Amino acid sequence: MRGCFVTGTDTGVGKTVLAAAIVASLRSSGVAVRALKPLITGLDEPVDPDWPPDHELLARAAQCPPQEVALFSYGPPVSPHLAAELAGRPLDRGRLCDAVRRACAAADVAVIEGVGGLLVPLAAGYDVRGLAADLGLPLLIAARPGLGTINHTLLTLEAARAAGLRVAGVVMTPWPAEPTEVERSNRATVARLGSVPVSTLPPVERADPELLGQAARGLPIDEWLGAAEPT
Fold this sequence. Notes:
Elements: E1 3-8, H1 15-28, E2 33-40, H2 54-62, E3 70-73, H3 80-86, H4 93-104, E4 109-113, E5 121-123, E6 126-127, H5 128-135, E7 139-143, H6 149-162, E8 167-172, H7 181-194, E9 198-200, H8 209-215, H9 221-226
Parallel strand pairs: 1-4, 1-7, 2-3, 2-4, 7-8, 8-9
Antiparallel strand pairs: 5-6
Protein backbone atom coordinates (compact mmCIF):
# COMPACT_ATOMS: atom_id res chain seq x y z
CA MET A 1 0.00 0.00 0.00
CA ARG A 2 1.33 3.46 -0.93
CA GLY A 3 0.22 6.51 0.98
CA CYS A 4 0.47 8.12 4.41
CA PHE A 5 -1.03 7.88 7.87
CA VAL A 6 -2.06 11.21 9.40
CA THR A 7 -2.05 11.56 13.17
CA GLY A 8 -2.00 14.49 15.56
CA THR A 9 -0.37 15.58 18.76
CA ASP A 10 -3.88 15.66 20.28
CA THR A 11 -7.49 15.86 19.22
CA GLY A 12 -8.61 19.01 17.43
CA VAL A 13 -5.18 19.96 16.07
CA GLY A 14 -6.15 20.01 12.40
CA LYS A 15 -5.29 16.50 11.23
CA THR A 16 -8.55 16.12 9.27
CA VAL A 17 -7.96 19.40 7.44
CA LEU A 18 -4.41 18.26 6.69
CA ALA A 19 -5.59 14.86 5.44
CA ALA A 20 -8.34 16.46 3.35
CA ALA A 21 -5.90 18.96 1.85
CA ILE A 22 -3.58 16.14 0.81
CA VAL A 23 -6.49 14.19 -0.69
CA ALA A 24 -7.80 17.22 -2.60
CA SER A 25 -4.35 18.02 -3.96
CA LEU A 26 -3.74 14.46 -5.13
CA ARG A 27 -7.16 14.15 -6.69
CA SER A 28 -6.74 17.41 -8.60
CA SER A 29 -3.56 15.91 -10.06
CA GLY A 30 -5.43 12.89 -11.33
CA VAL A 31 -4.28 10.45 -8.67
CA ALA A 32 -6.69 7.67 -7.67
CA VAL A 33 -6.59 8.46 -3.97
CA ARG A 34 -8.54 6.69 -1.23
CA ALA A 35 -9.46 8.78 1.81
CA LEU A 36 -10.10 6.79 4.92
CA LYS A 37 -10.86 7.49 8.57
CA PRO A 38 -11.27 3.93 9.83
CA LEU A 39 -12.92 4.97 13.09
CA ILE A 40 -14.93 8.01 14.00
CA THR A 41 -16.71 8.86 17.24
CA GLY A 42 -18.78 11.82 18.40
CA LEU A 43 -21.44 11.72 15.68
CA ASP A 44 -24.06 12.49 18.33
CA GLU A 45 -22.49 15.94 18.82
CA PRO A 46 -24.21 19.00 17.26
CA VAL A 47 -23.02 19.59 13.70
CA ASP A 48 -20.80 22.61 13.07
CA PRO A 49 -22.54 24.73 10.41
CA ASP A 50 -19.22 25.67 8.82
CA TRP A 51 -17.31 22.40 9.06
CA PRO A 52 -18.81 18.93 8.56
CA PRO A 53 -17.81 15.85 10.59
CA ASP A 54 -14.38 14.48 9.76
CA HIS A 55 -15.52 11.67 7.45
CA GLU A 56 -17.78 14.05 5.53
CA LEU A 57 -14.93 16.55 5.04
CA LEU A 58 -12.67 13.79 3.74
CA ALA A 59 -15.47 12.56 1.49
CA ARG A 60 -15.84 16.04 -0.01
CA ALA A 61 -12.14 16.16 -0.75
CA ALA A 62 -12.18 12.68 -2.30
CA GLN A 63 -15.58 13.21 -3.96
CA CYS A 64 -16.98 9.98 -2.61
CA PRO A 65 -19.83 9.01 -0.24
CA PRO A 66 -19.04 9.56 3.49
CA GLN A 67 -19.81 5.91 4.25
CA GLU A 68 -16.82 4.93 2.12
CA VAL A 69 -14.54 7.00 4.37
CA ALA A 70 -15.58 5.83 7.85
CA LEU A 71 -15.52 2.06 8.36
CA PHE A 72 -16.65 2.07 12.00
CA SER A 73 -18.82 4.94 13.28
CA TYR A 74 -20.03 5.69 16.80
CA GLY A 75 -22.23 8.35 18.32
CA PRO A 76 -20.75 9.16 21.74
CA PRO A 77 -17.84 11.67 21.84
CA VAL A 78 -15.52 9.26 23.67
CA SER A 79 -12.43 7.18 22.96
CA PRO A 80 -13.01 4.53 20.25
CA HIS A 81 -12.50 1.57 22.56
CA LEU A 82 -15.19 2.87 24.91
CA ALA A 83 -17.52 3.84 22.07
CA ALA A 84 -17.25 0.33 20.62
CA GLU A 85 -17.93 -1.24 24.01
CA LEU A 86 -20.96 1.00 24.63
CA ALA A 87 -22.30 0.03 21.21
CA GLY A 88 -21.82 -3.66 21.95
CA ARG A 89 -19.49 -3.95 18.97
CA PRO A 90 -15.96 -4.25 20.39
CA LEU A 91 -13.16 -3.98 17.85
CA ASP A 92 -10.19 -6.26 17.37
CA ARG A 93 -6.90 -5.80 15.57
CA GLY A 94 -7.42 -8.32 12.79
CA ARG A 95 -10.89 -7.13 11.87
CA LEU A 96 -9.84 -3.50 11.76
CA CYS A 97 -6.66 -4.03 9.72
CA ASP A 98 -8.41 -6.31 7.25
CA ALA A 99 -11.17 -3.75 6.72
CA VAL A 100 -8.65 -0.98 6.05
CA ARG A 101 -6.63 -3.06 3.59
CA ARG A 102 -9.73 -4.15 1.67
CA ALA A 103 -10.94 -0.55 1.45
CA CYS A 104 -7.62 0.64 0.02
CA ALA A 105 -6.90 -2.30 -2.28
CA ALA A 106 -7.85 -0.60 -5.55
CA ALA A 107 -6.35 2.85 -4.85
CA ASP A 108 -3.07 4.24 -6.16
CA VAL A 109 -2.59 6.13 -2.90
CA ALA A 110 -4.28 5.84 0.50
CA VAL A 111 -4.54 8.76 2.91
CA ILE A 112 -5.56 7.33 6.26
CA GLU A 113 -6.42 9.52 9.24
CA GLY A 114 -6.23 8.22 12.78
CA VAL A 115 -8.36 9.28 15.70
CA GLY A 116 -6.96 11.50 18.46
CA GLY A 117 -3.24 10.88 19.03
CA LEU A 118 -1.02 7.83 18.69
CA LEU A 119 -1.75 6.33 22.09
CA VAL A 120 -5.54 6.49 21.88
CA PRO A 121 -6.83 2.95 22.59
CA LEU A 122 -8.88 1.21 19.90
CA ALA A 123 -9.31 -2.20 21.51
CA ALA A 124 -7.78 -4.29 24.28
CA GLY A 125 -4.02 -4.03 23.89
CA TYR A 126 -4.29 -2.10 20.63
CA ASP A 127 -4.04 1.61 19.90
CA VAL A 128 -3.67 4.07 17.00
CA ARG A 129 0.09 3.60 17.04
CA GLY A 130 -0.39 -0.14 16.60
CA LEU A 131 -2.71 0.43 13.64
CA ALA A 132 -0.20 2.78 12.01
CA ALA A 133 2.57 0.21 12.53
CA ASP A 134 0.44 -2.59 11.05
CA LEU A 135 -0.35 -0.55 7.95
CA GLY A 136 3.30 0.37 7.44
CA LEU A 137 2.68 3.83 5.98
CA PRO A 138 4.87 6.89 6.56
CA LEU A 139 3.53 9.01 9.39
CA LEU A 140 2.52 12.67 9.21
CA ILE A 141 1.98 14.54 12.46
CA ALA A 142 -0.39 17.50 12.61
CA ALA A 143 0.58 19.95 15.34
CA ARG A 144 -0.49 23.35 16.60
CA PRO A 145 1.91 26.22 15.93
CA GLY A 146 1.48 27.93 19.30
CA LEU A 147 2.48 27.55 22.92
CA GLY A 148 2.78 23.96 24.14
CA THR A 149 3.40 22.43 20.76
CA ILE A 150 7.09 21.68 21.37
CA ASN A 151 6.40 19.26 24.20
CA HIS A 152 3.38 17.64 22.54
CA THR A 153 5.12 17.21 19.20
CA LEU A 154 8.37 15.85 20.61
CA LEU A 155 6.44 13.36 22.76
CA THR A 156 4.52 12.22 19.68
CA LEU A 157 7.76 11.80 17.75
CA GLU A 158 9.25 9.80 20.59
CA ALA A 159 6.19 7.54 20.78
CA ALA A 160 6.22 7.00 17.01
CA ARG A 161 9.89 6.16 16.78
CA ALA A 162 9.73 3.85 19.78
CA ALA A 163 7.32 1.71 17.76
CA GLY A 164 9.50 1.82 14.65
CA LEU A 165 7.20 4.14 12.69
CA ARG A 166 8.74 6.08 9.81
CA VAL A 167 7.96 9.76 10.38
CA ALA A 168 7.75 11.63 7.08
CA GLY A 169 7.18 15.02 8.65
CA VAL A 170 5.37 17.36 11.00
CA VAL A 171 2.84 19.90 9.73
CA MET A 172 1.99 22.93 11.87
CA THR A 173 -1.52 24.20 11.23
CA PRO A 174 -3.21 26.60 10.93
CA TRP A 175 -0.07 28.53 10.06
CA PRO A 176 -0.76 32.29 9.99
CA ALA A 177 0.28 34.58 7.15
CA GLU A 178 2.35 36.54 9.65
CA PRO A 179 3.62 34.10 12.28
CA THR A 180 4.73 35.42 15.64
CA GLU A 181 8.24 35.03 16.98
CA VAL A 182 6.97 32.21 19.21
CA GLU A 183 5.45 30.33 16.26
CA ARG A 184 8.59 30.71 14.15
CA SER A 185 10.72 29.57 17.08
CA ASN A 186 8.42 26.59 17.73
CA ARG A 187 8.78 25.43 14.15
CA ALA A 188 12.55 25.71 14.19
CA THR A 189 12.86 24.10 17.61
CA VAL A 190 10.72 21.08 16.73
CA ALA A 191 12.69 20.60 13.51
CA ARG A 192 16.00 20.78 15.37
CA LEU A 193 15.21 18.79 18.50
CA GLY A 194 12.98 16.32 16.70
CA SER A 195 15.30 15.86 13.71
CA VAL A 196 12.27 16.10 11.45
CA PRO A 197 11.17 18.32 8.56
CA VAL A 198 8.41 20.71 9.65
CA SER A 199 6.01 22.05 7.03
CA THR A 200 3.09 24.43 7.45
CA LEU A 201 -0.52 24.47 6.29
CA PRO A 202 -2.33 27.83 6.17
CA PRO A 203 -5.88 28.36 7.43
CA VAL A 204 -8.60 27.09 5.10
CA GLU A 205 -11.60 29.40 4.95
CA ARG A 206 -14.27 26.75 4.45
CA ALA A 207 -14.76 23.07 3.68
CA ASP A 208 -14.24 23.39 -0.05
CA PRO A 209 -12.09 20.89 -2.04
CA GLU A 210 -10.60 23.62 -4.22
CA LEU A 211 -9.53 25.67 -1.20
CA LEU A 212 -8.14 22.57 0.51
CA GLY A 213 -6.11 21.71 -2.57
CA GLN A 214 -4.79 25.25 -2.83
CA ALA A 215 -3.71 25.19 0.81
CA ALA A 216 -1.70 22.02 0.14
CA ARG A 217 0.36 23.50 -2.69
CA GLY A 218 3.33 24.19 -0.45
CA LEU A 219 3.40 20.72 1.07
CA PRO A 220 6.06 18.19 -0.05
CA ILE A 221 3.46 15.49 -0.73
CA ASP A 222 5.59 13.62 -3.28
CA GLU A 223 8.43 13.43 -0.76
CA TRP A 224 6.09 12.12 1.93
CA LEU A 225 4.69 9.43 -0.33
CA GLY A 226 8.21 8.55 -1.41
CA ALA A 227 9.02 7.74 2.21
CA ALA A 228 6.96 4.56 1.88
CA GLU A 229 8.85 1.32 1.68
CA PRO A 230 8.30 -0.87 -1.39
CA THR A 231 5.66 -3.57 -0.88
